[in-house]
């Protein structure tokens, strides 16, 4: 039979076999990986018994093809291991992984060294084999296998944190074990010399190099995937290539751990890929990788299990005793790390406390599998390793692996049940009953509506409705007996629900094309940190987290300075567009969350908690609204351009959805759809270009717009403009305080302020181009309102002393100011139409203050001048502009 036919028959036959095993494992209630190992051993025995005996037929040809197939350690490592690791790491929640990074590193690094030396020195007490050979065996069995551990824990439905701890350990401890294995194998074959120090340095180099290689490869692929967006086959193929390239580059070109490189690359793609890869592709990518992971997991287990009868061919009772020694040493060393070293991390504040029940399950769940068998196979294939050592390693490793699979693996479910880890906590149980009651009531109503719509007889639908009614009554009775949740617990639960829902809404708006990739990434990173704050501090953490997020960043300040001082507008334009889109996205999602509270959360947690959550969200929404209003005031023209850009992007997405709907309904052909899509792409690229930031602020124009200087000639306006001095104020800084004596007026070159006028319910907001405090130039009376910056503001200040020096030199300017002041003291009567309009139009009322005739002959104003509303013209200006 041709070699290609052999491989095709063998692989296709194995795939057909593994397709039947998942339902069998579910029926037998055994972990799928354990069943795979058992079937593999059975196939290995069948090969030894029947292969090569001259039989005919597909079954004998299949067994012969398996017997003739060259299953080497390199095939298993390079073909299956990268896919298996990538698929496992891709499904890991990176944020949750970093929540327990120190316990995971302890078990993935320290535990490997402890196990290696514990097993190695224990074996030297019971065998004449050399220490290096015993340590080599210890390194092989020190690594928990992701193919065994992860699949079993997922099948058992273990608690989420417990699963994360075990997944993280199994993903990362291969690096330490393989580094030690490589060093000890070199020492055994006289190619290397060294000890514990060299092993530690070798591990650090392998681990750091693998992390760096995987990170670079993952980021490069995330950049390359941009040009092929909306091409699902190309995007998914890139991730498959990434799994193999990162492994090969790390192993053969960098000299680092390929295992760590693959895991790191997958974590990078999993953390940022949802916004880099097109939304339509991401779901398909997850399904493809689940399929690839299933194939890799199944085939690597079957192929290694096929070799077990050959590896255990010469086993004796003494070997069984040595296997028990390995089991004992590995278990004791793992218990030492879990119950001795792990509490030290919690005591030092580096990790959350891990319960004894979790530690017991992690101890019992330290399964070994295909990785250990593959490393043992590599030893048996190395001609420079003595035959005695090859047999020693093959027998003990195989025996230990199958002990963990068939003893630990088959009893792991019972251990979890015994410790009660499969049961819900009281809080989770209460939430389950509340959610179930809500669901049952909704299903019952929909069933009744469905029966009415299809005119089903009441007798036919009555039994179904009654079953749901009985279940609902039982839930209500159970809820009456359970311990009630206190208010703070319910609020915290509600906030966790809201933050998780917020993250999903950001991704949803990104998939709809409303939010850009950068904004979606930032907002989802923020929700991750917000979730951590809620879990640790409850509502206090939720409130404390928002203030620094809404405030301006240092980068915004730097960009503003570059624009004001050097005329460089690009950085500020980018920061403004980014901030504007962030604020719009947050505002939209907050409003959707308010509806979500009323529709869902309130029914589960109660109306009292819903009111509290609504109040918390309302405060947060008000902060966002205020920040958005400040941005519009500070850059009014640019804000309009950004709003138009935002709406246009949403319109393009709606337009594209309509075109695809028309195509799905066969109204337009593929050719027409492609032509329309090209037009959409052109317009989308045009929208990606930021509009130019041009504040169009001319000092002469700015001064001329002040009512006090209205009608002045250009030379006099220019003279006043030369007196303006720049001043940068920070967000929240009070510029003018009520009760202070007025000594300057202020022009808002860029920014926004709020004027807190006594007697007004809401502050008067002013933005770029507005002025305030100009009456200080006429009379230095005390201010009657506070003026506070809403963001970073660039002000131009006109000091009263500088102004009076100019006035003393210019009689015409002095006469103009006197006429303006006189007009304000005696305003002309308003037309009848305007008076009627004011009677029916609500306006912001400001105190009517009589303006004294100023004394402009000297620097100081008349000392007996009555109090003046320094910001009165400010409020009037804001009304006129509005």
UniProtKB/TrEMBL annotation:
Task: List localization entries.
Answer: Cell membrane
- Pfam families associated with the record: cNMP_binding (PF00027), Na_H_Exchanger (PF00999)
> Is Transmembrane helix one of the keywords UniProt gives this record?
yes
- The transmembrane segments are 6-25, 32-51, 71-92, 104-123, 129-150, 256-273, 294-315, 321-345, 357-379, 391-416
Q: Which Gene3D superfamilies match?
A: 6.10.140.1330, Jelly Rolls
Single GO molecular function: sodium:proton antiporter activity
The UniProt regions of compositional bias labelled Low complexity, in chain numbering, are 867-882
Q: Which PROSITE patterns match?
A: CNMP_BINDING_1, CNMP_BINDING_3
Protein name as annotated: Sodium:proton antiporter
The organism is Azospirillum brasilense
């Amino acid at each position: 039979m041709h070699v290609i036919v052999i491989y095709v028959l063998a692989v296709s036959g194995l795939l057909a076999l593994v397709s039947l095993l998942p339902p069998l494992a579910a029926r037998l209630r055994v972990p799928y990986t354990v069943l795979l190992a058992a079937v593999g051993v059975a196939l290995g025995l069948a090969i030894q018994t029947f292969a090569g005996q001259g039989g005919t037929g597909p079954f004998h040809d299949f067994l012969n093809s398996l017997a003739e197939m060259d299953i080497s350690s390199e095939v298993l490592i390079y073909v299956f291991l990268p896919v298996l690791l990538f698929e496992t790491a891709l499904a890991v929640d990176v944020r949750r992984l970093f929540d327990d990074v120190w316990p995971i590193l302890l078990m993935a690094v320290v535990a490997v060294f402890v196990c290696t030396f514990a097993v190695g020195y224990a074996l030297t007490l019971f065998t004449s084999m050399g220490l290096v050979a015993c340590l080599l065996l210890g390194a092989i069995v020190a690594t928990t296998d992701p193919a065994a551990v992860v699949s079993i824990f997922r099948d058992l439905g273990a608690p989420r944190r417990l699963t994360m701890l075990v997944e993280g350990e199994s993903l990362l401890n291969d690096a330490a074990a393989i580094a030690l294995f490589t060093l000890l194998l070199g020492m055994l074959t006289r190619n290397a010399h060294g000890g514990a120090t060299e092993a530690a340095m070798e591990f650090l180099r392998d681990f750091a190099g693998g992390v760096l290689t995987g990170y670079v490869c993952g980021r490069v692929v995330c950049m390359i995937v941009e040009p092929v967006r909306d091409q699902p086959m190309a995007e998914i193929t890139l991730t498959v290539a990434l799994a193999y390239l990162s492994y090969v580059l790390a192993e053969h070109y960098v000299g680092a751990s390929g295992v760590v490189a693959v895991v790191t690359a997958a974590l990078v793609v999993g953390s940022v890929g949802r916004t880099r890869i097109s939304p339509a592709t991401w779901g398909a990518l997850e399904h493809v990788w689940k399929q690839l992971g299933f194939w890799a997991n199944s085939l690597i287990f079957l192929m290694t299990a096929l070799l077990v009868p050959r590896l255990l061919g010469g086993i004796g009772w003494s070997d069984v005793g040595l296997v028990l020694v390995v089991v004992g040493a590995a278990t004791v060393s793992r218990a030492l790390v879990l119950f001795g070293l792990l509490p030290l991390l919690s005591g030092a504040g580096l990790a959350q406390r891990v319960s004894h029940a979790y530690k017991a399950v992690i101890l019992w769940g330290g399964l070994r599998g295909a990785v250990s068998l593959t490393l043992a196979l590599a030893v048996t294939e190395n001609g420079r390793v003595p035959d005695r050592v090859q047999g020693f390693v093959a027998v003990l490793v195989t025996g230990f692996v199958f002990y963990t699979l068939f003893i630990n693996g088959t009893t792991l479910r019972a251990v979890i049940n015994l410790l009660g880890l499969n049961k819900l906590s009281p809080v989770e149980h209460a939430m389950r009953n509340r959610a179930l009651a809500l669901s049952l009531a909704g299903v019952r109503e929909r069933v009744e509506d469905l029966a009415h719509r299809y005119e089903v007889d009441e007798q036919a639908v009555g039994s179904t409705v009654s079953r749901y009614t009985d279940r609902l009554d039982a839930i209500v009775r159970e809820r009456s007996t359970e311990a009630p949740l206190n208010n703070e617990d319910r609020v915290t639960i509600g906030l966790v629900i809201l933050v998780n829902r917020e993250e999903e809404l950001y991704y949803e708006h990104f998939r709809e094309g409303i939010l850009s990739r950068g904004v979606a990434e930032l907002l989802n990173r923020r929700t991750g940190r917000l979730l951590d704050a809620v879990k640790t501090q409850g509502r206090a953490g939720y409130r404390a987290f928002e203030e620094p997020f809404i405030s301006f960043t240092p980068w915004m300040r730097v960009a503003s300075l570059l624009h004001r001082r050097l005329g460089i507008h690009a950085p500020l334009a980018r920061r403004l567009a980014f901030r504007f889109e962030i604020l719009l996205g947050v505002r939209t999602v907050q409003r959707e969350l308010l509806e979500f509270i009323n529709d869902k959360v309130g029914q589960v947690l109660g109306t009292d908690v819903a009111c509290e959550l609504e109040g918390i969200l309302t405060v947060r929404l008000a902060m966002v609204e205020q920040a958005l209003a400040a941005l519009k005031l500070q850059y009014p023209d640019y804000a309009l351009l950004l709003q138009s850009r935002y709406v246009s992007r949403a319109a393009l997405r709606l337009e594209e959805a309509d075109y695809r709907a028309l195509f799905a309904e066969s109204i337009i052909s593929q050719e027409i759809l492609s032509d329309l899509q090209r037009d959409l792409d052109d317009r989308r690229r045009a929208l990606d270009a930021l509009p130019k930031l041009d504040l169009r602020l001319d000092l002469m124009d700015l001064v001329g717009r002040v009512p006090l200087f209205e009608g002045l000639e250009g030379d006099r306006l220019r003279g006043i403009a030369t007196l303006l001095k720049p001043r940068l104020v920070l967000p929240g800084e009070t510029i003018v305080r009520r009760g202070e004596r007025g000594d300057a007026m202020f022009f808002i070159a860029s920014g926004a302020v709020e004027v807190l006028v006594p007697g007004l319910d809401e502050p008067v907001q002013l933005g770029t181009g507005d002025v305030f405090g100009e009456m200080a130039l006429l009379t230095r009376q005390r201010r009657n309102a506070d003026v506070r910056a809403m963001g970073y503001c660039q002000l131009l200040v006109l000091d009263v002393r500088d102004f009076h020096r100019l006035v003393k030199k210019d009689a015409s300017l002095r006469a103009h100011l006197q006429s303006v002041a006189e007009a304000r003291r005696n305003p002309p009567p308003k037309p009848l139409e305007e008076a009627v309009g004011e009677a029916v139009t609500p306006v912001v009322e400001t105190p009517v203050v009589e303006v004294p005739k100023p004394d402009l002959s000297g620097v100081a104003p008349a000392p007996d001048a009555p109090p003046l509303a320094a910001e009165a013209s400010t409020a009037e200006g804001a009304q006129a502009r509005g």
